[in-house]
Each structure stands twice: as C-alpha cells, then as structure tokens.
Amino acid sequence: MSGTGGGPGLPAGPARLVTALAVQTGPAGDDLDKNLRAASELARSAPSAGGGLVVFPELFSRPFWCLGMSDARYFGWAEPVTGPTLTHAAELAAELGSVVVAPFFECGAVAGEYFNSVAVIGPDGRLLPGRLADGTPVNVYRKNAISAYRWGEAVNDEKFYFKPGNLGYPVFKTKYADIGVYICYDRHFPEGARELGLNGAEIVFNPSATVAGLSEYLWKLEQPAHAVANAFFVGAINRVGFEKPWNIGEFYGQSYFCDPRGQIVAQASRDKDELVVADLDLDKIREVRNVWQFYRDRRPETYGGLCKP
User: Fold this and answer.
1) pTM of the model
2) pLDDT for 6 beyond 50
3) Which residues are catalytic?
C-alpha cells in the first residue's frame, strides 16, 4: 500500500510499516532469572531481531499465581519499576534497539498497594511515559478491571492481590507507533478501547494469562471487534501450558495480531511457546477510517448514561 499523501495528484510519503513481536511464553517456574532468560531468548529468535515493538504476556516473569488462592506470601514477588523484571526488559530493549512492552507485578509507593502493571521501555532502556486523555502523565499502565469469580473448580482471586489502576487509559508515544495497553480482563470492556482510540492509539496490546474453558471462544471475537469499532491494530499476547501453583486450567496461547478491519494477520499455535511476527502498516488506519466513519458519526452527547455509577 502506498503511504499517506497530500491529496489527488500529490506524491505519497513512505509507508509506515512497524514490525511487532508477540512473545508467547511457555509455563513459568519458580526461578525468576530463568523465566526472564527464556522469554528474552524467544524475542531474540526473530528472523531479523532488532527494532520494532516487543510485547510479553501478562505477568510473564512469574507463574500466574493469583487463580485459586489468596496467599499473602505472594506479595513478596512484587517489584518496583527498578526491580529485576523491568531491569531485564530494559537491557533487552537496549540490546535490540526495540520498544519493549513489559508486564510486571508492581509494588506501589504506599506499603500494601500492589498493581498488575505494564511498562513501556524505549530503545535506550528508559521508561517511556504515557499520557491520559486529559494530558496527565503516567509512568506505567495499571490494570483497571480486576476480576474475581468462581466458575466450577476455577477460582480467580485477583482482587486480593491487585488494586485498580489509573483513572483512564494512557497512550504511549514511541518512535514506532502510538500504543495503548489493555491487560487481560480489561478487554471485556469496550469503553476503554474507545478512549484509547480517541486518545490516538494506533496499536492496542492486550497482554494476557487466559485459560481454556472460561473465555476461549471470546479470545478472537472481542478484540477484533475492538479493532473494527475503533480502527486500530490489536496485538493479543497469551501464555501456554499448565503451571504450578495453580494447575487446574491450560493457558491456550493463540497470540495474534489483527488489523483495523478485524482481520487476523499473524497467529501463534495453541500449545507451545512461540514468537509471532507481524509487519503492521499503520497507513491502513487512515485508509479504514476514511471508509468506515465511526469517529465522525459517534454521538457522545447521547452516551451520558454510560458514565453513571
């Protein structure tokens, strides 16, 4: 596809192609350093490693412990932004010259506050700040929608571990694209996806730890729908396999990228750690929005009921 141009008869600019890597990790164990090394080695296995965007699954550096138990001992796994997970991610970003989207279990500034968070790290190894729609800067994205449920033998106790995050959905400006982040359960709520689109997100990543039997049929339904409704790219990143200490369900992988028309352009398997590589043409966003005029035709003055408690 040709790049953006000034109108009929005017020359088009270069296409805005971005290489994005979804790192679908296998089961994590108790050895943090080993988990981090395995994930980064997978990222390095790209045919032309270097540059672009690299994204890991939700809380990828640890086993996903918060399903099925409420145990305060796991608060010991929480880290500040200077902790080992983001330090390792920063070294990888500098090595590859990439932007790394790194989930981590964050301990807040106030004792007893913990968050399910994602940091965006630039190619220089430094945190890239995001901005909320009102211009407020944030250092990381903290998961907004925190789940808790019992479904047969499956029990989710995330509310025991995590405090809800930012009052809003920040967009992070990177050298490759303006990106937004959803974390796992966030994806079931369309309001944040629209806010990200309005705030300028070109790609929205959803790092997840999602198991079979709960919402697998939604995995490739909801997020392509977000991509269509908001005309941006979506990257959905999951882990695979069975893990201790929670060993009831199987993380089903199937990480993928989809375009602003909701078409899946690259996808991983269901049962192995794997790297998904996609070249995303950001010019397609404008192309689609010029055809499907959802932003022109939205009627925010009629949506007031959505903001009532």
Assistant:
1) 0.92
2) no
3) 58, 143, 184
